[in-house]
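In this section we walk through a basic example: taking a raw amino acid sequence and producing a predicted 3D structure, encoded as discrete structure tokens. The instruction is simple. Fold the sequence below.
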Amino acid sequence: MTTEAEEPTLTIDELAARSGVSVRTVRFYSTRGLLPPPRIGPRRVGRYGRAHLARLELIEELQLQGMTLAAIERYLRRLPPDLSAQDLAVHRAVVSSWAPEAVETVPREELGRRAGRALSDEDVRRLVAMDVVAPAADAQDAYRVDSGLLRLGVELLDVPLSQEVVLAARASLIEHSRAAARELSRLLRDAVAERDAQDVRSLSAHVQPLVVQALLTTFQRSLKREVREWLAEAEQEHTREERPPRGAPRA
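The resulting token sequence is shown next.
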């Protein structure tokens, strides 16, 4: 069921602006079946939602990986048709993890184009604080940026959490992901101890995307379970607060 927060509210012009593509591109993707049709609202105006935006971002990520339009069509056809925006974001994270680190130095005015939206000076300051971009030491008014991290950092700008919470979450994720990587690396090293270097490289290349997808899927499901338990506890606490004390007169 579509929640109120996921109700389609964007016109095609707004969707194009948010995704950084043209209206013509949105219509082209729709005719090719890459993008679900909009919900038709009053005055026969099509309305798009978060899932449309997430699907456009996934298509862009697939293109950045060098996939042809035909390959993207095949990839999207294999996905369940009712994936939520969150599920599509997980798929995009998996695709993004295929790309090698690519740190570039770009001028300040280029950051907005790379981010897909205008960035204020405060936005850039927060991205620097999150270690998503860094001032270039060898160029004035330029920044070193990993394009794979930039989109993630820009999305975090809209999350209603303080910068301190975002940085603490980042530190926690880095700490635990490195611990998981060390443990997995140890297990693989023990498993291939008797093989030659070529076998080890081949096995690593085969296993790495599987491990990334497994980690993302496991984390997503664990996070959903934690949120459900948290909400259930909050609901129980709310019920206890509303229940009158034993023996108290009822209204």
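Looking at the output, two observations stand out. Strands lie at 39-40, 46-47, 103-107, 133-135, 142-146. Residues 1-5 have pLDDT under 50 and may be disordered. In the next section we compare this with other chains.
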